Amino acid sequence: MRIAPHPLPVSTLIMDQSTLSELKKKLLAEKALLEAELSSFAKKDPESRTDWETPTPDVGQGEESVPPDDLADKFEEYENLVSREQPLETRLNEVTRALSRIEEGGYGTCRVCKKPIPQERLEANPAAMTDMEHAE
Ligand SMILES: [Zn+2]
Is 83 exposed, middle or buried (0-12, 13-18, 19+ CB in 10 A)? Predict the structure, then answer.
């Protein structure tokens, strides 16, 4: 008589390779988009892998100085770019972290309770680091 294999507890199930490579592809595509958008107005900090800087406006000097009205416009534009930069940078960091978790292990598990993150959640957000229960 054969003994039926004992079903694996959910927490030991490993994501299948094709799902993982789909999610990795999504992350890489998103990373490329975010980097393209950031580099359209910001510069990557050469000292850091994760920091981006929106250049401060050029205010000119002496005779060449920018008229106050133009200056106000330039600073307003700068503020707009900075507020555009921040969420992009945050998201890029999440995506980069998820990619390194794919390489180094730990991807697809909640960083709080270590349980697997439901696949639907990962499909909606491949950079998710927690399950629903521990979502921020
Ligand atoms: Zn959790």
Answer: exposed
